[in-house]
UniProtKB/TrEMBL annotation:
The keyword Iron-sulfur does not apply. Residues 21-186 form the Flagellar M-ring N-terminal domain. One of its GO terms (cellular component) is cell outer membrane. It holds the Pfam family YscJ_FliF. Belongs to the YscJ lipoprotein family. Its main location: membrane. This is Lipoprotein. It is found in: Cell outer membrane. Signal peptide: none annotated. The chain crosses the membrane at residues 214-235.
Amino acid sequence: MKYLRLALILGLALLLTGCRVELYSALPEDDANQMLAILMQHNIDADKQPKAGGVTLRVEQSQFINAVELLRLNGFPRRSYVSAETMFPPNQLVVSPAEEQQKIVFLNEQRIERMLSQMDGVIHADVTIAYGRANDDGSVGPASVAVFIKYSPQVNLEAFRVQISNLVEKSIPGVQKEHIGILMQPAEFRMLSVANMPTATPWRAIAWINLHRWALMPPLLLAMLLLISLMLIVWRKRG
């Protein structure tokens, strides 16, 4: 009986090792599907649960860090942008021309950021549009644009610098190419995979078992059931 209890405890321990934790919540269905597909492509065990307000993405607790980093390198979760309807609601009171101009500039910045974020490898994009002060004769100085892009080190985004500059130039009327500044920074790669672990350490085997534990679970449970059955037979014969 002592061995039977020990086997049951070991079985419960194996089942509890697959504890899942919440990764992201309130996600749009499309984003949740893409994020889940990325995780599954990299052998990270995850699932999604529809809830009020959006979809919740869950992942194995032991793979939480790699899941967050992997999704970050792929630009997830996506940024949410303010729509023109939100900035200019139908029942809005009359605003000053300066305030209206600020809202238009903000919407233009977001429009360019959204376009840049659709490029493969872009993790985060920020765009700032600045207009010169009005002169005494009423004319306005030339506009300048600052673009910051953080991108995945797996993509050579520097090869698209000219195309990005052209995109920004065509998106803002009157801006000149020499007044466009672009800073692109590769993100730091912080994932730790089983393949990158030193072969001389026992943690490599532990990590491999942890990564493939769901595939190993059925044969292990079957072996435990056979062992329990064998111990019951022996116990009954002794009784």
